[in-house]
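seq as requested:
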Amino acid sequence: VHKNGAVEYLSGGIGQDESAAMEMASRQWPLTLEFASRDKGHADFAADAQVLVRDDKGRAALNTTSDGPFLLAKLAPGRYTVEATLVGKTLHQNILLKAGQPAKAVFVWPAGTDEADS
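struct tokens:
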């Protein structure tokens, strides 16, 4: 578990065992982010996404780089905007976190967006 400001987060999920452990742990975290890139009709997990989470006032709540295809974050209930950047391509999603209701956002970059392209 890492800490960025007041926010605790866990990142990883490389390999089948670690991926399964992250998915199991995600039930205990308010927010789960998952990262993938398209490849020939299916999505492959992606790591090293730069992640910026902003609260509803535009302040950075979390700014980090994922260590794997999953990032779990302990954020307070509220509205957030998540920016995830992989190889210079940024995707955005708006997230509403409600108390006691874990949320999940999946970011899938188009084909050709992966670490090998950098």
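The first strand starts at residue 2 and ends at 4.
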